[in-house]
Amino acid sequence: MKRTLIFLGLTGLISSTFAIDPRLGSVSPPGVQAGAEVEMRFSGSRLEDAQELLFYKKGFEVLKIEEKTASSVRAKIKVSADCPLGEHPVRVRTAGGITELKTFYVGPFPVVSRVKPKDGEPPQKLPLNCSIASSVPNESQEIFTVDAKKGQRLSAEIESMRLGRGFYDPYIEILDTKGFILSRSDDTKLFIQDCYASAVVPEDGTYTIKVRDTSYGSVGLYRMHVGTFARPTAVYPGGGQVGKDLEVKFIDQATGDFSQMLKVPQPVSFRLTDGRMDEPNLRDFGIFAKRDGVVAPSWNRLRISDFPNALEVEPNNSRSEAKLIDTPMPLALNGIIEKAGDEDWFHFNAKKGQRYEVRLYGRKLRSPLDSVMNVYDKNGKSLASNDDSGGPDSYFGWTVPSDGEYFLRVRDHLQNGGPDYVYRVEFQPVKPTLSLYVPDVGRYDTHTRKSIVVARGNRFPLVLRPRRGNFGGALKMAMKEFPAGIKLHCDEMASNKSALTLVFEAAADAPIAGKLADITATLKTDQPNPVNGGVWQNYDLVQQGNNGVYYRTWVDQIAVAVIEELPYKIRIETPRAPLVQSGTLPVKVIAERKEGFKGSISVRLQLDQGFTTRPPGLSCPSSISIPADKTEAIYNFSANSGAEVRTHQIAMIGSSGVKGGTAYVSTQLTPLEIKDEFATASIPLAKTTQGYPTEVKVNLTQKVEFPGTATVELLGLPSGAKTTTVKMTKETKELTFPIITETGAKTGLHRTLFCRMTVNFNDTTLTQSFGSRGTLRIDPPPSPPSPKKPTVNTLGKLAEEKK
């Protein structure tokens, strides 16, 4: 996917008061016509230093900047005649950063302005083959009229949810000259919440189009196309082989099916997404139906494969009727479940040991089919089957057990069917696949810190996570098409790591610039053609918390910019001592402030939402703060006994308010060495009585040498028990703690004792705990003997003696 960078002509005129952290809220109009010159407004905040518009696809040229303010950028843009139709992501780059990603659409028709009629005036009349944008107030509807002739096709199609502005559920209907409904639609399989209506005009006259929310709520924004364009509900076959000519049939239930030829394009790139409905990849592409010279405003989805097609041959409703396919595997099997109760059988040959990911594309191609898929041997024994897998489409992995003939059956789960129940089953050979993505930094937030914004002479951190398929091994990261003056610092991503922190550093004299770039990961190997992949990133445009994501878009590039110098930097003072298992390590973070900058700086270990980049067994605070009047703070790390013994590379992200926005920086990547424990210990049971002294013995096992003498504390004593610290060296085998108990010391069996040693290691104070669950038993003192109870005879003798 080729990106387009539009420069706004501000080189050398950058204000010293540039705004940090620009934001983009909306793009208007929400759609434009291919081949037109249009005025577009990019609304948001902190946009006064706008320098570039970053379009992810080709076809745009900025002719003139009409206006630049903090809240908007207004530009005159020429859209090329061959600009790809459909959705276009865009960002604004300023001297102080890069905005969020927003989208707009390019369509084939001229855009008509909405003119709301006054009371008593007739509805707005639209010309055929036009587009219009508007909104619907709560408990209301929008009404339009259009003139059409008998036998002419009349179609109306809505883009609303797909505009990415909010959760809208539009409804549309076309009424004839007498006010009866010709066609209506709410939700559709083709466009989900967005809808369309299409019909053949029965007579000359004026026809009415009504748009409203399906429940008479509001529709904050919609874009409607009205015209004579075809609106096929499906296309067959559902894909083709790369570089081959393909004749497809558009299934159009309003005016009849028709065909169109195309050459299947080479996919620009491939990103692993496991075939989920909500995770497309660039082997999915759209074809825009064209009939009688009029192009449909929205595509029908097709698949691109490296292997040929095999089309169903009727009759194939049973295993005995299926005809053997001569073409060897791998193949893409294509068919239509044409009526209720229909099922399709395919007969093919396969070789022993071949491994396939057998994936059905139905709903992912916007077919109504809810598939069930089975593989059988020649005797009818079921070998593999699936109903749903990551959505209504079916999938299973299959290894061919022996050379021979096999059968595949496809049916609808509820035995439904229809002329647009199209499907495609790809026998995809198992091969390594790889892509990268930036994880979310906040819940329900897929936009924050998804770009790389590096200030001159400063650093910026980024977490990357891989999507691996069918391989293991370490990955090497690299920059691709980055702006000049940026360096990448990162470790290799080990096979057992699920995330990696990267630090980007810009030279002090790096040009102020921006690009849509890529970060690539390549398998570390001596073999030729190693597995590699790049960024494949989702951006949720319409989501409602726990209710899920309703609409998202995907891009295969990451926005990168070098911005003007920031008033602060942070760095880690490289630790001079290791972090030992069951121990702690203080790490100093130092802020370098420019004169006059007094902002508080928040510092945290670089994390991603739900997962941490810190190694297993490592703990630290969620964040610390460097106060406005300070230049340093301590970040305390601790490791448990299971922490991996190795040297890790860590970085910390700093954030502070700068000129109304949030400016992010990073420390350098710093080695953090985790070592084995200095010592382990066991604490045998010690016993005493309240008010009496005792001793607690600690049996030591020395593991790693430490310098000098360490001080050891016995902790976890019950109330009323006291002791003193003792000393130990690397030769010490046993420690003895004298215990003094008060008469009111808590009695019982106390399994809470442990030791903590403190040692000076290269002028760094380290601590380590050992000997957990040591036991001290404190008993109450024995009771004094009870006086002997006198008997009756004894009492008589005592009485006589008194006489």
Notable characteristics:
803 residues, mainly beta, Jelly Rolls, six-stranded mixed beta sheet
In short:
The protein is mostly beta strands and 803 residues long. It folds into 7 domains: 4-107, Immunoglobulins (Immunoglobulin-like, Sandwich), CATH 2.60.40; 116-227, Jelly Rolls, CATH 2.60.120.380; 234-305, no CATH class; 309-433, Sandwich (Jelly Rolls); 434-563, Immunoglobulin-like; 568-675, Sandwich (Immunoglobulin-like), CATH 2.60.40.10; 679-779, Immunoglobulin-like, CATH 2.60.40.
Plain-language structure description:
The protein has seven domains: 104 residues, Immunoglobulins (Immunoglobulin-like), CATH 2.60.40; 112 residues, Sandwich (Jelly Rolls); 72 residues, no CATH class; 125 residues, Jelly Rolls (Sandwich); 130 residues, Immunoglobulin-like, CATH 2.60.40; 108 residues, Immunoglobulin-like (Sandwich), CATH 2.60.40.10; 101 residues, Sandwich (Immunoglobulin-like), CATH 2.60.40. The chain is globular. The N terminus is likely disordered. The termini are far apart. The chain contains one helix and 70 strands. It has 803 residues and is an all-beta fold. The strands form 17 sheets. Strands 49, 51, 55, 57, 63, 65, 67, 69 and 70 form a nine-stranded mixed beta sheet that branches. Strands 1, 3, 5, 8, 9 and 10 form a six-stranded mixed beta sheet that branches. Strands 11-13-20-15-18 form a five-stranded mixed beta sheet, with no helix packed on it. InterPro entries: Ig-like_fold (IPR013783), Ig_E-set (IPR014756), Peptidase_C_arc/bac (IPR007280). This is Peptidase C-terminal archaeal/bacterial domain-containing protein. Pfam families: PPC.
